[in-house]
Amino acid sequence: MSWELLGPDQMIKKVEKSDFIKTEMVIPNELIGFFGNEGERLSIIYQNREYPSYLETEGGNTKLKWSKVLIRKLGEAFPEHESWFDGSCDETKIPKLEITKVNDVFVVNMSTLNGQSDNENTETVAVAVKNEQPTETALNELLKKWITGYPNYYPRDFRFSFKDIINEDIPKVIENFAAIKAGNYQVQGFAGDTQWAEIPWVKVIDRRAQNSAETGLYLAYILAMDSRKLYLAIVYEAAGVGVRTLSEKAAEYRKKLETGKYRTDHKEVLLANATLVSGIVCYREYTEIEMPGDLALAEEFEDFRKMYQNCLASDQVEEEIGHSDEVAEVLTNQDQLLLDQERETITPELDDQEPPEEMVEIEFEAESFPATNDQDNNEEGIPVVDLVMNEQWAANKNSDCDDEQPNHDHGQTDDGVTAKEMSADETEALSKQTTEEQDENNSIEETNENRQSETLTKVPMKNDYLPTYLQLIQAKMGNKGYYYSPELIKSYYLSIKSKPLVMIKGRIGSGKTSFPQLFAEAIGASTENGRFKRVLVGKHWNDETPLWGHLDSRGHFIPGPITLTLKTAKENPDKPYFLLLDEMDQSPMADYLRRLLAGINGHSEAFLTREDFGADVAAFREYGDLNYPDNLYIIATINEGTGSYPIDPRIIDSGNTIRMPEVEIAVFPNYGSPSGESEWQNSSFKIHNQAKGLPEILEKLMYLLNDVQKLLSDFDQPMGYRGKNEILAFGINSGVEGLFTEKEVIDLAIQQRIIPALESDEKTEIALYKALACFLLADNLKDKLLKEQSLSRFCHLYEKLLKAEVIPCPRSGSVILKKLNRLLKSNV
Q1: Which among 303, 528, 702, 826 is most buried, taking Cβ atoms within 10 Å?
Q2: What span, in angstroms and rounded, lies between the C-alpha atoms of 267 and 248?
Q3: Are 556 and 549 in contact (CB under 8 A)?
Q4: Quick one: angle between helices 695-714 and 742-749, nearest 10?
C-alpha cells in the first residue's frame, strides 16, 4: 500500500510514477478526512512560493490534484533520482512524502524510502489551507527563465507548460507584493492564445483607473524582440491612435515624473510593435546576466508602481477640474447647505501601501450639531473626514417640512407620496415641528460657527475593463452592427455563471432579444447547431403544454421546445445550451413555468411523469428521464410598459434581472477581424475551483451583504438564503476573474436582485428605496438626506450627488432615482 498512516496527525506516502505523470494522487476513502473536505482548495508553499492544489472527486475516487509546475520543480529538486524518473525504479531511491498535520497546516518532507536524505535534496513543502501566502518571492529565477526559455519554446507546440511561468507564476509573485495584495490591481500574464505570442507580457492595471479595454495606462513586464532583454515599463496605449500622438502623451507623463535612474529614451526599446514602443513613458532594462536579486526587483517594481500611480493621479486631477462646477452645485446656497467653497485634494505623493482614490473635498460652514474629530477609514485606508452639514438645510427652504427621521414602522410621507397613500391626519402629524424643536435648532445654529470639511470619494458609474476572452465576444457582436457596453457583457456573463436564469428587461427595440442571441453565437451556440433556441411566449398561455409537449389526436406525444432542448443538452454535457423565452410577460408565468422553475432552483426529479405520455411508451422511454442539466441556461426577456402580466416574485427570486441600457447612437468601434476561441465549453460557466481560495473576497462580500441585510430587515424585507448565496456566487466568479470590485458586486446585486424583488411587492415603502439609494454613503450625509421629508428635494439633491459621482452605489442609485421621479410625476 502506498499510503501508511502513522498516527492521527502523520502519514507517509510512497511516491508513484503516476503521481508525477497525472499530477494527482488518489486518496483512500479512510484518509480523505486527513486532508479536508471534497472541493477544498489547498495552497502549497514550496521554496517560498505558492501553488494551488485541490481535493476533487472523479469517477468515485477522491484525488489530490497538484500543480504541474510544482511537480516539475519537485523533480528538479532530486537530480539523484533521475533513474527513478526515467522508469528504472530503484527501490532504494523511490521518493516518499512524510506528511505531518499541525492544526490546518500540512508540513511535507520529501526523502527516499531507505531514509537517506540530506539538506541538499530534502525539501519542505508547507500545505496551508485557505489564505496562507508565501513570505518571500522568487521573481529573479522566473524572469531569468522567461528570458532564456521563451526563444526555445517559441517554435514549438504551444501546449508546453512553459507558458505557466508567464500566465501564472510571475503574476502570482506580483500579487503577493504588499501594495498589490489589497486587491486594487488586476495582474495578468499573456504568452499567447493558441500559439506563442510575438510580444509576451505581464500587465498590472489599477482597477480604479477605469481604463477602457483598449485605452489607458498600465505597468508591464515586456519581453524584447530578440528575447535577450526584459523591460519593466509604464505604457500608455490607445486604440486607433498614431505613433506621434502616443509619443506626445508619453512625453506629457514624463514631465510630471521624477524618473531618477530609470530610462525614458523609449526609442531604444526593442519591440516588434512601433506603436507600443511610442507609448512607453519610462522603463528599466533587465538581462539574464544583469538581473537583480528578489529584494531589488521588488523595490524597483514598487518605484514603478508609485510612478504609475502618479501618472494616474495627474489624470484624475484633470478630470476633477472638469467636474468642479458640478460638485459645487451639490449642496449650494440654493439647496440651503451653505456651501462656501470647493477644492480638490488629489495628491500625487502616495501612501507607502496604497495609492489614493479620486477624492472631492467640500467645505461646509456653521453646523447644527457639535463638530466631531472622529475619522472613518475607507477600504483602502484613506482618511475621510466626518461630514457636518447645516441642520437647517431643508427647513430654510421648506418651512412646512420637519427634520424628523422617517418612521419605518408607519411608512414615510414624501410630498404626499408613499408606497401606500397615507391619511390626512398622518400627513399633517408628520409635517409639524414643535416649538421646542425649532428653538433648539435656532440655538444650535447661533452657537456653531466653526467650519468642517468632508472629503467625498468619486465612484465612477462605469467599469469598462474587459479581459481578452470577453473582448473577443464584444468584437464579434460589434462586427455584426451591435455595440454593447463592457459592463453589460460582464454582468450578463457573471449572472449566467451564478444562476442559469437571467431576465432581461427593456423597451421595445432596446436589444434585449438580440443581445443574448449574439452572445451565444459568439461562443459557438447558434440556431444552426441547435444550441440556441428562441421560444416566443404566446398570449395567455394557461398551461405548460406549449413548452413541454402534448398528446395529439392519435395519442402520440409531440415534444415541445424545452423537452427537445433538454434531450440534446443531456446528450452533449460539455457544451452550453441556451433557451430564450422571448416576451415572458405575455402570459401568467405561474401557468407555464412551474416545472422549469423547480429545475432551475435545484430540484433533480424528472420533469415529465408517466401520465404526461399517455399510451406512448416509446416517447416515455425517450423523454421520461429528463431533469435539469447543468449546461442549460434560460434567458427570459421582459417588456417594460403596459399590457404585460406582473412578474411572479418566485421568478424574480430565482435569477438576476438585468435592465438593457439605452441604445448608444455613435460610430461603432472598428474591431477588425476577430479571431480566437469561439467554441466555449460548459465548464466556462461553472464556478472556478480557485474560488475556494478567495477568503478575502468572501469576507468582504459577507460584511457588505450583512449590512444590506440589516437595512432590509429594518423594513421587514430581508433576503432569503437563495438570494444571498447567488449574490455570493456572482461575487466569487467576479473575484476569480477580476471583473468587478466587491463594492461594485453589491451595487449590481442591489440593482439586479434586490430592487426587482422589492418592485414586485406593492407594500414596499419609499423609505426603503431611499435607504438603499444611500447605502455606504458617509453617515452624516446619509442621515441628512434621509431626514429630508420632501421627496422632490431628496431627488433633486440625490441627482446632484450622482452627477458629481460621489454616490458609492451609482448603478442601483440611478435606478432608484428614476423610480422615485416616476412616483413624483404620477402624484402631481
Answers
A1: 303
A2: 13
A3: no
A4: 40
Query: Beta strands 95-102 and 10-14: pairing type?
Result: antiparallel
The average pLDDT across 92-103 equals 67
**Same-domain pairing of 532 and 646:** yes
**For residues 442-470, average pLDDT:** 62
Which pLDDT value is given to residue 214?
Answer: 60
Parent domain of 785: 329-460+758-826
User: In this structure, are 166 and 313 located in the same domain?
Assistant: yes
Residue 814 neighbours by CB distance under 10 Å: 17
Do 222 and 253 have their domain in common? Answer: yes
Pairing of strands 656-659, 49-58: unpaired
Looking at 77, 96, 129, which one is the last position of a domain?
129
Q: Which residues pair with 608 in a beta bridge?
A: none
CATH number at residue 201: 3.30.920.90
563 and 639 belong to one structural domain: yes
Q: What is the mean pLDDT of residues 542-566?
A: 91
Q: What is the pLDDT of residue 129?
A: 36
703 in a domain, yes or no?
Answer: no
Q: Do the beta carbons of residue 260 and residue 300 sit within 8 Å?
A: no
**Domain containing 595 — which CATH number?**
3.40.50.300
645 occurs within a structural domain: yes
Within this chain, do residues 614 and 475 fall inside the same structural domain, yes or no? yes
Q: Same domain, yes or no, for 177 and 240?
A: yes
Which residues, in sequence order, are CB contacts of 534 under 8 Å at separation 6+? 513, 517, 527, 580, 582
In this prediction, residues 95-114 reach a mean pLDDT of 64
DSSP 664: P
Cell numbers describing residue 722:
437563495
Are 93 and 143 in the same domain?
A: no
Query: Which residues have CB under 8 Å from 585's CB, separation 6+?
Result: 537, 638, 639, 644, 645, 646, 647
Q: Is the pTM of this model over 0.70?
A: no
Q: Given this model, what pLDDT does residue 328 score?
A: 45
Question: What b/e string do you get for 552-566 counting C-beta neighbours within 10 Å, with b at 16 or more?
Answer: eeeeebebbbbbebb
Beta strands in 640-743 (DSSP E): 656-659
Q: Is residue 746 part of a domain?
A: no
Mean pLDDT of 334-340: 41
pLDDT of residue 366: 33
Q: Examine residue 258 and state whether it is found in any structural domain, yes or no.
A: yes
Angle between helices 742-749 and 721-737 (to 10 degrees): 140
Position of cell 426587482?
A: 756
Of 18, 43, 332, 288, the closest CA to residue 145 belongs to 288
- When divided into structural domains, the chain yields a total of 4
DSSP state of 352: S
Quick one: average pLDDT of 777-782? 87
